[in-house]
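If you are new to this repository, start here. Below is one unmodified record pulled from the training split, so you can see the exact layout before writing a loader.
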Amino acid sequence: MILAAAGCTDPDPGPDAAPPPPPAAGSTPRSAPAKPACDARASLRPAGALPAPGKMPAGGYLAAIQKRGRLVLGTSQDSPLFSSRNAFTGRVEGFDIDMGRLIAAAIFGDPGKLQIKVIPHADRTAVLSGDEGEEGQPDAVDLVINTMTANCARWQEVDFSTVYLETGQKLLVAKDSAVDGLDDLAKQKVCAAVGSTSLQNLENAASDPVPVARNGWGECLVAFQQNEVAAISTDDTILAGLAAQDPFAKVVGERFTEEPYAVAVSKRHPDLTRFVNAVLEQSRRDGTWKTIYDRWLGALGPAPQPPAARYR
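And here is the target side for that same chain:
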């Protein structure tokens, strides 16, 4: 769900814009017109062509990352198909991890120069919006890619890239359940992760389900399997990964929200946001985005067109 909130930057009218005319004599001054709602899908425009790997512009945050020798990605390890730990290799992998590897490859020429830092879902904006980083110096986490919905409330804390995947919230229930939508779950317990828009959507649902918060989707799946909750509700792409782990579960219903996923970056580093947007734009054009989709989400059907970029 997209939350309309004040604070997103309005377009700059430029230095030559004419000032508004004064009110006519004797007239009652009018209140200022309402500001347009924030466009949570619109990000910062790339600053020209991508620099060559290993040749980041001097003096900016990208140069600091290059000097450090690795890109630090904040993500989870319990979002199947997106960022989950492989039980055989011990590595965190998925769609979101491959997005991070794309960005690392563009900076260093080597996708392996990506360091993964596991963070709680509830801390996804906090790790980027604190004051621990100084301008031009690398932060503990450079960016967050973690099935994170770009909405206007979060834009107050962090900047987002353009949208790299469009999803929507559905339900996971038992295979023998007659539930077909949120309206069938009045007064029943439904699990979602702490700090997620999914949990907030449950809290606001008119059908009055009982939201149950857990620290991650893995904990929600355990609660579901132990019959502590009647359902899990989050984005359909995440639910597909959970259903693949439980042969007695199914995903049901129509999408009842819109969840545009984007990369979160500290507001202190707009050069990194613009760089990420250039990388995403290139992945849409050269087919890399489709390759990543087919690898992780191909079981859901043919890859759609990647979300078109929108800029401020």
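Two things worth knowing about this chain: The radius of gyration is 21 Å. The longest strand covers residues 159-167.
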